[in-house]
Design a protein that fits this description.
The protein is an alpha+beta fold. The protein has one domain. It is 22% helix and 36% strand. It is built from 3 helices and 6 strands; from the N terminus they run ββααββββα. The strands form 2 sheets. A 4-stranded antiparallel beta sheet has the order 3-4-5-6, with helices on one face. A two-stranded antiparallel sheet has the order 1-2. A hairpin with a 5-residue loop joins strand 5 and strand 6. Helix 2 packs across helix 3. It is globular, with a radius of gyration of 13 Å.
């Protein structure tokens, strides 16, 4: 089981995931098999640049997660707030991602992938 920390409406909660939210195969499909976002997301997670991950919305059909990530290229600049929507039932599929970074116009950047990998089993 993955240990997971989440902030929900400014309440800090720690819990153990007992189910698979998303699988690595689905992440790979979402990024069309490209390795660059996977490599970049690994750096973000290993270096602790992904500061928080939390629910934005949780409904019957899907869940939306938001992550706050330090800018790897410019650590002094404001952090990125990236989002990703995962379709239910779990393990789900990625509906869409969004990130304000230069490579985030497709929603498949390393910041979005880091959010997905933080809830991947």
């Amino acid at each position: 089981m993955n240990s997971f920390t989440i902030t929900y409406y400014s309440i800090h909660i720690e819990f153990q995931l007992t189910f698979t939210v998303i699988e690595i195969e689905e992440i790979s499909t979402f990024i069309d098999g490209h390795s660059k976002p996977l490599v970049g997301s690994r750096e973000i997670l290993q270096c602790g640049y992904l500061l928080k991950v939390g629910y934005v919305r949780d409904c019957d059909e899907e869940i939306e997660l938001k992550g706050i990530c330090i800018r790897v290229s410019r650590p002094g600049d404001p952090s990125f707030e990236s989002t990703v929507v995962i379709q239910k039932p779990f393990p789900g599929s990625v509906v869409r991602g969004h990130c304000p970074c230069d490579g985030g116009s497709t929603g498949k950047c390393k910041h979005v992938i880091a959010i997905l990998r933080s809830v991947e089993k």
